[in-house]
Amino acid sequence: NAGVTQTPKFQVLKTGQSMTLQCAQDMNHEYMSWYRQDPGMGLRLIHYSVGAGITDQGEVPNGYNVSRSTTEDFPLRLLSAAPSQTSVYFCASGTSGGAGGELFFGEGSRLTVL
Amino acid sequence: SQQGEEDPQALSIQEGENATMNCSYKTSINNLQWYRQNSGRGLVHLILIRSNEREKHSGRLRVTLDTSKKSSSLLITASRAADTASYFCATEWIQGAQKLVFGQGTRLTINP
Fold first, then answer.
1. Does B58 touch chain A (CB under 8 A)?
2. How do the pLDDT tens digits run along chain B, 112 residues long?
3. Phi, psi (rounded to 5 degrees) for B101
4. SS3 assignment for A27-86
5. A32 vs A90: CA distance, rounded Å
6. Strand locations in chain B, DSSP E?
7. CB–CB of A15/A83 below 8 Å?
8. Chain A residues with CB inside 8 Å of B3's CB?
């Protein structure tokens, strides 16, 4: 059982470049989310989805786009990368956002923007 | 910031001792969860306590919740070297259902 799979694990971008962080889960979870983790800041919610075709903003959505065309996949797009987006990104899935129980996290994608 | 606060930020104890971490939050919640993160890895769920519960146990873990003080504590008894990790509390706010808000974490080091 793979759980939550994130790719790539590491990425270096130049300012202004675009890229997509991929997230896939094989647990048939309706809820998926993206967090970023910065030193001393804990995890901050970027975007989340409660099902295919439904997405919403979290705490720090600016500079990021998401879509949810299937239950399994929830990609995070950076349209024009900025150094402030250097961070570790985590995708998580669950049966709900929290009331239903735990979130399952991927291993993270480490992004550096030069 | 909408995050909760955890205390202490770092804790170093000897193997076999108990470790206590605290979490305070700002508004009414549906539930509170604790997660562990080993260095360079993703977060792993430890325990969930609902707003109508006061205490919960799971193995060597004991979690308490005081909604009147808007605080929670995580106690790890008889610590082991493998418990070395960062520990995060996460709250689901009533107004922000389906949004888990994480604290900044406590970095726990267990010395052999």
1. no
2. 455 788 999 999 999 999 999 999 988 888 899 999 999 999 999 999 999 999 999 999 999 999 999 999 999 999 999 999 999 999 886 655 567 889 999 999 999 9
3. -110, 125
4. CCCCEEEEEEEECCCEEEEEEEEEECCEEEECCCCCCEEECCCCCCECCEEECCCCHHHC
5. 11
6. 5-7, 10-14, 19-24, 29-37, 43-50, 55-58, 61-66, 71-76, 85-93, 100-102, 106-111
7. yes
8. 41-42, 44
